[in-house]
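Backbone Fold Data
Goal — fold tokens
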Amino acid sequence: MSVDTFGTSGPGDEVIAAFGFTVENVVHNFKSLLK
């Protein structure tokens, strides 16, 4: 998971969620790497 843009502003938790950095997405991506 990474971010390929810059310049986004707003409350941190909203920006992080907008880019998909939620606990659910991180866990899902991590598990898919283990397969």
Q: What stands out?
A: Residues 8-35 form one domain. The chain has two helices and no strands.
